[in-house]
Design a protein that fits this description.
It contains 29 helices and 33 strands. It has about 800 residues and is α/β, with parallel strands linked by helices. The protein has a 10-stranded mixed β-sheet, sandwiched between helices. The two termini are about 40 Å apart. The structure holds adenosine-5'-diphosphate. Adenosine-5'-diphosphate (ADP) binds next to helix 9 and helix 10.
């Protein structure tokens, strides 16, 4: 027999990693795991325990405590008690703790890897080479941010007590994504792992105690959704960070609506894997293996939709099938296994049901010849599965399967590829395969996803932010951008840096406002202002008007004008106009956007007196104060124009051979319901930066003082503002807010108004997971940095290099 023939006939022997260290660790605890609160181990107050099982064998590993709301209380209390001193601990000392944790994880890497594999079912190759090294990396990286916080983020501080809820697919990695930035920035934490996979979090708790982390800084409590619900509802929690399903994310969005709790959600995905006809197909096939068969496809950013250009589709599918034939499913502890066990029977059933549905809906299902062996194994196993002839609207092309199942579709042109890629309610990640870097980068900017990998896939690093667009959630984890999820602006008096120009001129306007009501300059009631939609003045659909009053004169109300009462139809029209204009405006060069805003400022300046009179008429400000407000608004327009071409991205220093471009992109269509104070300045301070960043706007002026906005129509008409990019609908704030927050074509809604209105907006926004930015109807306007951040979302584009 020749050697070549011999290599073909060789079979794999077993290459198991020893489970003993992990089993010994479990035995040391007598298979019973309590709650880690205030650096002490406590029994659950409800005396309820549940099993953690090895999904590869179906055998029980240990009993886990089910934390009740009493236990959640105790954990939050411990975190609250620890907060003042932890947040005041110098950054360097916090950095030392994070560093110590990273070192301990490395020192116990093998124990962590084996424990993770037997608890979750993922192959040891992955826990050993990916999960655990990345966990250590997250703590090292954020040790650096703890060290730099004072210098780099001088006007920010920790938020307080953070409740963190994580899923089972990357148990320890998700823990590190959550805990490392939180404690680096000075927050204290209550974290709950998913009920299927609690063990590595508990081993991590021991490490926290062993490095002497002060009691209460990190508390780990276990339990199911009931425990998670109690954490979300706890009144003394300042922030919720959640990773999991979009359904639970929606529940949490609603539950926290109108509370002071800051929220970040990392949810589901249906990420496209796009292969062009000039791609290196063999590399792309390996990419698919990593995209959808990594971690059994139980990855929120899994490349679960394969989009292939028609000319190479048959070839690609052939190569893929050949590769699938060689994949090995089996004992996750075996070092030569590619695909391990599905986390639990319930998940396996869901995969089976969706695959059946896919076949029933008419797609062609293919599995390797050995697929039937999976069902014969004890434990939960499922073979790699490929669907071809998939209709883009079918269930398997739209719904997250969270299993090793790939749905393949074809496209003809790059435009069609982008349309298919974006034909999803999700927007977590995308992978683009082409040897043409011009094409790849062009498409990277067009795909709606928080992370885009070029000629690569499933690359992660602590230095690069990760998070979604659309219903994949909001907030970023990792990178500088991720820090903002765990910090808030210090109260103004503590800010050492000079206050921004806009805010100071706004203050000047207030201080110059005289108490006396000056109405002498007010024009007579003249006309009813219309709406401004699609670049044209439009009559309100309902044919109704609302009276606008100035400050009362003596006892009588002082009618100064009328505006249209906008309704659902007006909002629909405005949103439609904004949606149609958004893509073009986002693509306009930054220079061009700046020019339009400078032109607006120029035209506003030419009408200073008229606008100042209007301010006086509406608010009773003195002529001086009103002029100061117009000047401040013009200055704000200049500031927004200045930022249009200076709000740069970054290049993250990830360890891979990559440039990772962190690019701020516009949100898309932004609805802004204006505050009441400073009717003109507020427009310039909120709408202008949003516009400068490339968003198309639907603006609802303050119902109290709408006339400064309606007077702007003529300024907008003469300033080269592209039709549809700025739309203005007057009317009842909360009625219009309801329509806007329920509208699927609004990507972000900013609402200034009373607390119940804020809550309603946040709740209604859960439907398509739009971003919300809420503030009071009167009082200081938000800081410009925050406005710019709300107006954008960071996309990380990974571009590999190397010959
Ligand atoms: P997956 O589909 O990935 O299991 P889930 O969203 O069901 O995602 O679970 C993710 C995490 O959310 C788990 O820790 C789970 O216990 C927790 N969880 C489930 N239901 C709720 C809830 N209603 N409130 C808070 N947390 C919950």
């Amino acid at each position: 027999m020749k050697v070549a023939e011999l290599t073909k006939s060789l079979v794999y022997g077993a290459a198991p990693e020893a489970a003993k260290p992990a089993l010994d660790w479990i035995a040391e605890h007598n298979g019973r795991f309590q709650l880690f609160i205030n650096n002490e181990w406590k029994n659950p107050s409800g005396k309820e325990w549940f099993d953690s099982t090895n999904p590869a064998t179906g055998r029980k590993l240990g009993s886990i405590a089910q934390a009740t709301s009493t236990d959640v209380n105790a954990a939050v209390k411990a975190a609250r008690k620890a907060y003042p001193s932890w947040s005041a601990t110098p950054g360097h000392i916090r950095a030392r703790y994070l560093y110590a944790i990273a070192r301990q994880i490395q020192k116990h890497a093998r124990l962590f890897a084996v424990l993770e594999t037997i608890d979750n079912g993922k192959p040891i190759r992955e826990t050993r080479d990916i999960d655990i090294p990345l966990v250590a990396r997250h703590f090292y990286y954020h040790a650096g941010w703890a060290q730099l916080m004072d210098k780099e983020l001088p006007d920010h501080q920790a938020i307080g007590v953070v409740a963190q809820i994580i899923p089972w697919n990357f148990p320890l990695l998700m823990l590190s994504w959550k805990i490392a930035p939180a404690i680096a920035m000075g927050n204290t934490v209550v974290l709950k792992p998913a009920e299927f996979t609690s063990l590595t979090a508990l081993l991590f708790a021991e490490i926290c105690a062993s490095v002497g982390l002060p009691p209460g800084v990190v508390n780990i409590i276990t339990g199911d959704g009931r425990t998670g619900g109690a954490m979300v509802d706890h009144p003394d929690v300042d922030k919720i960070a959640f990773t999991g399903s979009t359904d639970v994310g929606r529940i949490i969005r609603k539950a926290t609506a109108g509370t002071h709790k800051k929220l970040s959600l990392e949810l589901g995905g249906k990420s496209p894997f796009m292969v062009f006809d000039d791609a290196d197909l063999d590399s792309a096939v390996e990419g698919v293996v990593d995209a959808i068969w990594f971690n059994q496809g139980q990855v929120c950013c899994a490349g679960s939709r394969l989009l292939v250009q028609e000319g190479v589709a048959d070839k690609m599918v052939k190569k893929l099938r050949a590769r699938m034939e060689k994949l090995r499913v089996g004992d996750p502890l075996d070092k030569a296994v590619d695909i391990g066990a599905i986390v639990a029977p319930v998940q396996l059933k869901q995969i089976q049901a969706l695959v059946k549905l896919g076949a029933d809906e008419g797609a062609t299902m293919w599995q390797p010849s050995w697929a039937a062996e999976c069902a014969k194994r004890e434990g939960c196993f499922y073979p790699p599965t490929l669907f071809t002839n998939v209709a883009p609207a079918s269930t398997i092309a739209q719904v997250e399967i969270f299993g090793p199942v790939l749905a393949a579709m074809t496209f003809r042109t790059p435009e069609e590829a982008v349309k298919l890629a974006n034909n999803s309610r999700y927007g977590l990640a995308a992978s683009i395969w082409s040897e043409d870097i011009n094409l790849a980068l062009d498409l990277a900017t067009q795909v709606k996803a928080g992370t885009v990998w070029i000629n690569s896939t499933n690359q992660f690093d602590a230095a690069s932010g990760f998070g979604g667009y659309r219903e994949s959630g909001f907030g970023r984890e990792g990178g500088r951008e991720g820090l903002f999820e765990y910090i808030k602006r210090k109260p103004a008096k503590e800010v050492k840096a000079p206050v921004s120009k806009g805010v100071s001129s706004q203050k000047a306007a207030t201080s110059r406002a005289s108490a006396g009501v000056s109405l002498s300059m007010a024009p007579a009631i003249d006309r009813t202002a219309k709406m401004f939609i699609g670049g044209k003045q439009a009559r309100p659909d309902g044919g109704l008007s609302i009276n606008v009053y100035g400050p009362a004169v003596g006892k009588s109300r002082n009618l100064i004008g009328e505006v249209g009462a906008g309704n659902r139809k007006d909002i629909r029209n405005a949103v439609e106009a904004a949606r149609a204009a958004a893509a073009g405006w986002a693509k306009a060069t930054a220079h061009n956007r700046a020019q339009v805003i400078y032109f607006l400022a120029e035209n506003l300046a030419a009408r200073t007196d008229e606008f100042a009179r209007r301010i006086t008429q509406q608010t009773g400000f003195s002529a001086n104060a009103a002029h100061a407000e117009v000047d401040a608004a013009i200055e704000q327009l200049f500031t927004a124009a200045a930022w249009a071409d200076k709000y740069d991205g970054r290049i993250h220093g990830v360890p891979q051979r990559n440039v990772t471009l962190a690019v701020p992109e516009p949100m898309g269509t932004v609805a802004i319901l204006m505050p009441d104070d400073y009717p003109l300045l507020a427009l310039a301070a909120l709408a202008a930066p949003a516009f400068a960043m490339g968003n198309a706007l639907v603006i609802v002026p303050s119902p109290a003082h709408p006339l400064s906005a309606t007077d702007l129509y003529q300024v907008l008409e003469t300033s080269d503002v592209p039709h549809g990019t700025i739309n203005i609908v007057t009317g009842n704030r909360d009625e219009l807010a309801k329509t806007l927050s329920e509208h699927d074509d609004i990507d972000s809604i900013w609402y200034a108004g009373p607390t119940p209105g804020q809550a309603a907006v946040q709740k209604a926004s859960a439907a398509n997971m739009k971003r919300t930015f809420v503030m009071d109807a009167s009082g200081a306007l938000p800081n410009l940095d925050d406005v710019l951040r709300e107006a954008t979302q960071v996309k990380n584009i990974w571009v590999p290099y190397g010959a």
